[in-house]
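Module 6 notes. Inverse folding takes a fixed backbone as the condition and produces residue identities as the prediction. Think of it as a translation problem where the source language is geometry and the target language is the twenty amino acids. Below is one complete input and output pair. Work through it position by position during the lab.
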């Protein structure tokens, strides 16, 4: 485990994370710090804990919205896959019919020529 010092709301916090995840943890802390600063700018100083809770809720709200969009995109993707499968089946059927029609036409031409 690695120790990482992150700064949120102007205060340093020592956190642990798996080795190799240090930069990701720093990025997450920056995201939380941005939200805390937005709250501080919009409502003023309301106490560190309350600011952090509000920032956490704002980040959670964004995560919730992103999750809903992802689920909708996954559902759309599934519909597209199913449509693609239907189209491929239809194309295969048309190819088979076309091949049969060519075989019949070829046989008739051979009868005429032959």
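Target side of the pair, the amino acids:
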């Amino acid at each position: 485990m690695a120790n990482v010092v992150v700064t949120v709301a102007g205060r340093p916090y020592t956190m642990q994370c798996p080795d190799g995840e240090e930069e990701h943890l720093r990025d997450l802390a920056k995201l939380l710090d941005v939200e805390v600063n937005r709250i501080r700018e919009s409502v003023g100083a309301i106490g560190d804990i309350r600011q952090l809770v509000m920032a956490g809720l704002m980040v959670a709200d964004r995560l919730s919205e992103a999750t809903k969009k992802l689920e909708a995109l996954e559902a759309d993707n599934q519909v597209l896959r199913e449509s693609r499968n239907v189209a491929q089946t239809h194309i295969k059927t048309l190819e088979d019919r076309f091949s049969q029609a060519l075989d019949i036409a070829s046989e008739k031409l051979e009868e005429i020529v032959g």
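Reference fact for the lab report: The radius of gyration is 31 Å.
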